[in-house]
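Renewal narrative, Specific Aim 1. Our central claim is that a sequence can be written position by position from structural information alone. The example that follows is taken directly from our test logs and has not been curated for this report. It begins with the C-alpha cells describing the chain, in the order in which they were read.
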C-alpha cells in the first residue's frame, strides 16, 4: 500500500491552506479531492454570489488575491483564484479521489478510497467543509409538504421560480440574499424563528473587515468556549435592510404548520406556497471519520481547536469557529492551518 506523510482530505480553500502550511513545515502532503478540480465548493455556490469581504481580506497564505483590493470579488473570481493557488502549490493534489473511510491500522491511518484503492498516512487533516452536509431542521409540518422543497445548497438563480409563491426559511446571509434576489421577480416571504440581525458593511467609511482586523475580534480565540456557533449577522451595505423594510421580501415568524402545499402562519392565516427554500445552514461533512470513532453523537469532531482529542495525528482545518470568527473564511483559514501544521509536524517528529 502507498504510504504518505500527511493526507489532506478535501481540496478547497481549507485543504489548500493546510497543504501550503504543511510544506512550510517540510512535510509532503497529498491532497485528496473528490471533485474534478481543487476549488472546493465555490463553483456550486449561487450564481450572483460575491464575497462579503473585500479582496484585500480574502487571500490564502502564499498568494494575494490580486486586482483592486477594495472590490468584492464574484464567486467565479474566487474559483479562478483557488485554482491559481492549487497550481502554485508544491504538493501532490489528486482530484476525482473521494475518501470513503479512515481507519487506524497498526498505528497508522488507512484511507479507503472510492473505487477500492487504499492509502496509508502517518497523519490526516480533514478539510472537507460543510457544503456536502446541508442542515434540514425539524420544522412544523415540513415532512408533509408536497411543493418544491430545496436547500440553499441547491439554489443557483431566481429564474426557475418566476411567478411562484416562495418561502425562504432562515435569517443568515444566504437566506436574506436569496430572498432579496427572488423578490425582484416573485412574491417571497423570509421566515425564521429568530429576527434578522444586520451588520453594516462599512463603518466610518471603512469596511467591516478592517475593523475586525484592527480590533482583534477576527482572531480572538474564543471558538473553544462556544458550544454552538452564535447566530450569523447579515452583512449589508444597506440594500438588504431597505429591501426587508420595504417588504420585498416580507418578513414573518416561522410558519406553524403545513398541509400539502398549504402553509399556516403564526396569525392563523393560510396560503398556498409553491416552493420552500431552506437556508438553514450546514454541518461538518465528516462521515468518513465515523467508524474511526473521532466524532461525537451529533457528527461533530471531538477536538480542541484543530486537533483531534481522540486520535493523535488527526487534525481539522476550516471548521466554523475552529478557533475564532474567521476560522472558516478565506482570510482566516491560513492562520488556523499554520497552527495545525506546526502541531502535526511536532507530533510526527516524536512518533
Ligand atoms: C453561500 C456561501 C457564501 C460564502 N461566502 C463567503 C465569503 O464571502 N467569504 C468567505 O471568506 N467565506 C465565505 N463562505 C464560507 C467559506 O469560506 C466557504 O464555505 C468555503 O467554501 C469553505 O471552504 P472549505 O475548503 O472549508 O470547504 P469547501 O469549499 O466545501 O471544500 C471542501 C472540499 O472537500 C471535498 N470533499 C468533501 N468530502 C470529501 C471526501 N470524502 N473525500 C475527498 N474530498 C472531499 C469537496 O469536494 C470540496 O471540494 C461562504 C459559504 C457559503 C456556503
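The sequence written for that structure reads:
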Amino acid at each position: 500500500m502507498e504510504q504518505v506523510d500527511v493526507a489532506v482530505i478535501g481540496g478547497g480553500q481549507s485543504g489548500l491552506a493546510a497543504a501550503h502550511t504543511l510544506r512550510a513545515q517540510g512535510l509532503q502532503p497529498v491532497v485528496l479531492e473528490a471533485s474534478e478540480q481543487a476549488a472546493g465548493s465555490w463553483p456550486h455556490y449561487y450564481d450572483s454570489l460575491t464575497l462579503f469581504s473585500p479582496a484585500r481580506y480574502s487571500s490564502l497564505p502564499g498568494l494575494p488575491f490580486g486586482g483592486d483590493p477594495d472590490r468584492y470579488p464574484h464567486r467565479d473570481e474566487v474559483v479562478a483564484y483557488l485554482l491559481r493557488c492549487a497550481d502554485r502549490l508544491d504538493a501532490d493534489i489528486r482530484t476525482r479521489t473521494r475518501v470513503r473511510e479512515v481507519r487506524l491500522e497498526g498505528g497508522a491511518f488507512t484511507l479507503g478510497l472510492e473505487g477500492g484503492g487504499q492509502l496509508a498516512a502517518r497523519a490526516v487533516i480533514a478539510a472537507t467543509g460543510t457544503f456536502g452536509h446541508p442542515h434540514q431542521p425539524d420544522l412544523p409540518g415540513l415532512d408533509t409538504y408536497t411543493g418544491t422543497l430545496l436547500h440553499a445548497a441547491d439554489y443557483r438563480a431566481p429564474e426557475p421560480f418566476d411567478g411562484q409563491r416562495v418561502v425562504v426559511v432562515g435569517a443568515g446571509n444566504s437566506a436574506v440574499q436569496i430572498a432579496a434576489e427572488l423578490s425582484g421577480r416573485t412574491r417571497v416571504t423570509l421566515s425564521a424563528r429568530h429576527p434578522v440581525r444586520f451588520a453594516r458593511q462599512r463603518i466610518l467609511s471603512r469596511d467591516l473587515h478592517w475593523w475586525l482586523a484592527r480590533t482583534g475580534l477576527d482572531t480572538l480565540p474564543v471558538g473553544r468556549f462556544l458550544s454552538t456557533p452564535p447566530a450569523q449577522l447579515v452583512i449589508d451595505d444597506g440594500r438588504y435592510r431597505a429591501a426587508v423594510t420595504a417588504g420585498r421580501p416580507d418578513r414573518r415568524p416561522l410558519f406553524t404548520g403545513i398541509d400539502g402545499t398549504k402553509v399556516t402562519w403564526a396569525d392563523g392565516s393560510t396560503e398556498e406556497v409553491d416552493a420552500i427554500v431552506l437556508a438553514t445552514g450546514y454541518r461538518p461533512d465528516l462521515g468518513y471519520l465515523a467508524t474511526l470513532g473521532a466524532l461525537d453523537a451529533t457528527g461533530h469532531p471531538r477536538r480542541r481547536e484543530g486537533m483531534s482529542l481522540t486520535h493523535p495525528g488527526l487534525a481539522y482545518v476550516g471548521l466554523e469557529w475552529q478557533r475564532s470568527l474567521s476560522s472558516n473564511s478565506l482570510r482566516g483559514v491560513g492562520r488556523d492551518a499554520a497552527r495545525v501544521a506546526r502541531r502535526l509536524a511536532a507530533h510526527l517528529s516524536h512518533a
